[in-house]
Each structure stands twice: as C-alpha cells, then as structure tokens.
Design a protein that fits this description.
This protein has one helix and seven strands, in the order βββββββα. It is of the alpha+beta class and about 90 residues long. It has one domain. A three-stranded antiparallel β-sheet has the order 5-6-7. Strands 1-4 form a two-stranded antiparallel ribbon. The chain is elongated, with a radius of gyration of 17 Å.
Length: about 90
C-alpha cells in the first residue's frame, strides 16, 4: 500500500501533462507498506539504490551515498541485537 501526503500542492493538468505550479517550499511524505520485493544495487558512480515494491506493483526507490547506506545497515544490525521484533 502506497500513501502520499501532498500538503498544499497545486498542480496544473494541460494537454495530458501534470505540472506543479505552486510555491517551491512545499513538503511531501511517501510511505510504502506491505513490501514484497526489495532490491539493493549500485546507482551511478556514487550512490546505492534501495528499491521496494508491494504486491500491488507500487514502487519506492531511495538513492543514498555509501555512508548513508552504511548507516542504514548499522541501524538494522542494532535492531537485530536489541529489538523484540527479531525474536
């Protein structure tokens, strides 16, 4: 399940194209639940891409620096040793 929270965005639909026409200082939140597929791979020369997909075909991708990806790995390792969800 993919959820999007687009707070105060304004879009224009013209000739089949969607264009953001509001201010550039807006924020959005995207969440993907019930992930069925995960892929981790190189992305370009300097990034690590995490790709997630649910059973409905919704996809979510994140490109991180190697340092950020290592921080994610350390966080998972910490959860494995300290959290009850891994018991």
């Amino acid at each position: 399940m993919l959820t999007l929270d687009l707070d105060d965005f304004m879009f224009e639909l013209k000739d089949g194209a969607i264009k953001h026409v509001g201010p550039s200082n807006r924020t959005a939140t995207a969440k993907l639940y019930d992930v069925e597929g995960i892929d981790v791979r190189e992305f370009g020369d300097e990034r690590v891409k995490f790709a997630f997909e649910d059973d409905d075909g919704s996809q979510f991708e994140i490109a991180l620096t190697p340092e950020q990806a290592s921080e994610v790995a350390r966080g998972v390792e910490m959860l494995e040793s300290e959290s009850q969800i891994y018991e």
